[in-house]
Amino acid sequence: RLAALLAALRPVLPLVLGLSLGCSLSLLRASWSRSGGEEQCLGAAVRTGALAGGARLEVADGRPGPGHEDFRPRIVPYYRDPNKPYKKVLRTRYIQTELGFHERLFVAVLTSKATLNTLAVAVNKTVAHHFPRLLYFTGLRSAKVPHGMVLVAHGDERPIWLMYETMHYIHQHFGSDYDWFYIMQDDTYAQAEQVKALVTHLSINQDVYMGRAEEFIGGDEQARYCHGGFGYLISRSLLLKLHPHLDSCRNEILSVRPDEWLGRCIIDFLGITCVSQLQGQHYHTYELAKNTEPEKEEEEEFQAALAVHPVSDMTLMYRLHKRFSRIQLDKAYQEIQDLQMQIRNLTSLTPAGEAGLTWPVGINAPFLPKSRFEVISWDYFTEQHLFSCPDGSPKCELSGASKADVSEIIESALEQLNSRYQPLLRFSKRQLLNGYRRFDPTRGMEYTLDLLLEAVTQKGHSHVLAKRVSLVRPLSKVEIIPMPYVTEATRVQLVLPLTVQDLDFVANFLDMFAMNTLDTHDNALLTLLFIYHPYDAQRVSQVDVFAGVKAMVGELEKRYADVKIPWISVKTEVPSQVKLMDIVSKKHPVDTLFFLASVWTEINMEFLNRCRMNTISNWQVFFPVHFQEFNPALVYRGEQTASSGTDFLRDGHFDRHSFAEACFYNSDYMTARTKLAADILDRDEVLESMEVFDVFLHYSGLHLFRAVEPGLVQKYALRSCNPRLSEELYHRCVLSNLEGLASRSHLAMALFEQEQANST
């Protein structure tokens, strides 16, 4: 029996033994851990900290014991010694400077006094705007530097000296800002986009000397220098290593050609030779023969070239630029067609299938409105007139950019039709029957044209037909416009013109100014401009209409001892905004930042900061569009007004007819005002029909930033429109009052209630 029992248990015997052994070891380890913990708890000055990799000891103050590493992160509290003076930490202007980022590419063009106004100008007009930074270096400069070119003159026309000074200047001024340096001559045409694409595929950690490799005359067969006529690329690391040896190269190396001199300097002191291929990238060049016709060049070597040399004159430079632009444009069109074909092939695999394919292929689908208020309206036009005018009139003459846009879109439609049906048919335009256009923010400008065309067959038969075509001008690549750096620390000088009709609102304005600027110690000042009617000015010694305002100003100055609020008194029947600003401008420094306010404006810190950031001296002025609340008597009709913070922009509209508020620098106003004075001569009556906005619009080359401003909210008030102003200003004032009454729904409800009351 025992033998039979053992035979039956033999298959499970290893399992039983394994379980028994495992349980025993677990109990033994648990007893060891418990005894070790008891021993550590006996020490008052020692505590444990268990980690996954084992145990460690820590002293009571949290520092690791000797011979052990502390891998547990701890928050170190900030502590400043009160006995030491506080030192403010200075931060860099841009985060990329603090992180050590560099710009990608710097381009240097070597020119001369003889070719500065010819070939250098051609380079500047063709490729300069494609490079992020481009400078021209010459020995001697002419009396007049061409417009739009940054020129550095070294004072000596010797080629070697020019190269030496150029390399020294680049290292001193741009060596720490750029990763790559491209040096070319003014008789070189470079494809800017391909040069920029080349540096994006090269590693910045290597010493790179790249261009068209040429052999030295009578020198080492393995050593190469980069031919200067085809341009060459130098990395930042190579420039930093080369700079200490430039003086030695100037004194020890003799050469006639500056590119050979530079190549010999790099080879002798750094041991680096010129290469035409590196890291899988090729530096393709093409040497132009005499009497070359760029329009007829079809060689693959020509089309792939990054640089072309020599370019003998300006006309040839422009012809090369036109030819290469056409080549790049054809490549872009071919890539678009290939992508559209791939999209068509993949559309059948999507859940929507063929129905999900939009037109044009690859462009976003049209915007689908969710309600009737989101429907984008179409503007009707013909070849002579536009039936949706900026000033609100039903019909106006088609001119300027709109006329050029219509002409271009008709030509594009004919070109597309001929490219599709030729050689069977050839179309020519007889007349534009109807034209419609609208701007879709999701895709671009859409057009629908009804064209009366004449179709001519290959045999010469003609036929007149009407055809409808649809076109889309898609939104192109979004570009970031470079803007000068501004801060929020600029002092704002508020200017408040006041008339007798504004007296009821001055108290609220001063209260808001004191609460939002004086109490918060904002860097803002206030100047009041009292506008007296001639009749009131004669009686000012007996009855001063602004005596109450002056008393309020005195109370503010007593409450805030360090605040002074000056005022200026003006006598006029027609308070022209330009004439008033002329008086204020003369009493302030040229670097003053003005905020021209109205008495209904509620000043707050949020808007003042935006005024500072959106106004840039010698660059941009800011004309905010304030939010005008509706008449509460019509909107709420006796009900309680909404007071929640989310509804403060609900019952009102942005008043686009008002240009009363403006932010600008005094220097910019004085410059524009000088040009205006030269234009109008002594006709001061013209100023009565102008506002400050008109002065900047017509007599300054600055950017006029006109945008809605949710931080500038005005309570409802019926403005008094002076009939002695110009017809346009008076009309705008009346429209502002009418549109500020209420919305159409509120006006309809008020009319309905009035009719109901009249019927009963």
TrEMBL record:
Primary location class: Golgi
GO MF term set: glucuronosyl-N-acetylgalactosaminyl-proteoglycan 4-beta-N-acetylgalactosaminyltransferase activity; N-acetylgalactosaminyl-proteoglycan 3-beta-glucuronosyltransferase activity
Keywords (A to Z) from UniProt: Glycoprotein, Golgi apparatus, Membrane, Signal, Signal-anchor, Transferase, Transmembrane, Transmembrane helix
First-tier enzyme category under EC: transferase
UniProt family annotation: Belongs to the chondroitin N-acetylgalactosaminyltransferase family.
Transmembrane spans: none
Record's GO cellular component terms: Golgi cisterna membrane
Signal peptide span: 1-18
Designated gene of the protein: Chpf2
Organism superkingdom: Eukaryota
Compartment list: Golgi apparatus, Golgi stack membrane
Membrane topology classification: Single-pass type II membrane protein
E.C. number(s) listed in UniProt: 2.4.1.-
Record lineage: Eukaryota, Metazoa, Chordata, Craniata, Vertebrata
Official protein name in the record: Hexosyltransferase
